[in-house]
Design a protein that fits this description.
This protein folds into two domains: about 60 residues, no CATH class; about 40 residues, no CATH class. About 45% of the residues lie in helices and about 5% in strands. It has four helices and two strands; from the N terminus they run ααααββ. It has a two-stranded antiparallel sheet. A hairpin with a 5-residue loop joins strand 1 and strand 2. Helix 1 runs antiparallel to helix 2 and helix 2 packs across helix 4. The longest helix is centred in the first third of the chain and has 17 residues. The structure holds zinc ion (ZN).
């Protein structure tokens, strides 16, 4: 399967779910099946679709259920470390090598 075909199928399906205001529980079940199926056929461009629909919980949940999270990607200013945790995490930032730095919460800014 050509990579962009997976993205097109996925994004089109999400549009239909949104346009028809499908309830979130049902949408998540449908997307679980779709994400799993696309991954089996080698889809590896999930981050783009995940970013596109980051505000739509059924997409975020379906990806998480299939091992793909929306990454925090916060950058540590002195070393350029990139956080590997899921966006919105409540523990300190950490990169893939285990380097940790303090999470500045909104009320501390
Ligand atoms: Zn982080």
């Amino acid at each position: 399967m050509h990579q962009t075909h997976g993205t097109r199928i996925f994004d089109s399906t999400v549009q239909v779910l949104l346009e028809n205001k499908i309830n979130h529980a049902t949408a998540e079940k449908i997307l679980n099946i779709l994400v799993n199926g696309l991954q089996i056929f080698g889809w590896a461009e999930e981050q783009g679709s995940l970013e596109n629909f980051a505000d739509y919980p059924p997409v975020v949940n379906a990806f998480r259920n299939n091992g793909v999270i929306l990454q925090c990607l916060a950058e540590e200013e002195n070393h350029g470390w990139i956080c590997k945790h899921e966006r919105g995490h409540d523990i300190d930032h950490e990169d893939h090598l285990g380097n940790k730095w303090k999470l500045i919460r909104d009320h501390e800014k």
